[in-house]
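Quick question, first post here. What does this chain look like in 3D?
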Amino acid sequence: MDVRINKSTLSLVEGDITSEETDAIVNAANARLAGGAGVDGAIHRAGGPSIMEECRKIGGCQTGQAVITTGGSLKAKYVIHTVGPVYQGGVKGESHLLKSAHLESLKLASAKRLKSIAFPAISTGVYGYPVNEAAHIALKTAIDYLNEHDDLELVRFVLFGRKTYDIFTDELRKLI
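> Answer (accepted):
Ran it through. Tokens below.
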């Protein structure tokens, strides 16, 4: 599903983020940037050891923040690593931190003069964030950003599995 926001395209696709050819893909990383399961592990496996070497030099990333490395062997030129919150019932500032993870990733892409970025469904796997709430926060943050900035041509959400894709599609329809 594609929609125009200002001068940009916001796109939802079901697929594998490691195959994306956008300028950057976003990694749902952990605070140590140490690799892990899910999206994080898949990106490190597909991108090769050079990404981990750069992550070690960076050292870490706080929840809600973002850092950037090259894309290693990936088709994407860069990986933006962001740390989403672990869901604790929604009473520990998780929504603010999830919004910040998306916003800081978008700002970093703009600062690097990138034209396209692809996000996974941050925090919805082992971090337990309810997909519908995460989708609303992620999409609203992207829409608000694109309404104020016209440097990014494409913001894509690459969603693993039909259920997650359908939830994001429903949330996007509510927001546009």
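Residues 2-175 form a domain with the Leucine Aminopeptidase, subunit E; domain 1 fold (CATH 3.40.220.10).
The chain has a mean pLDDT of 97.
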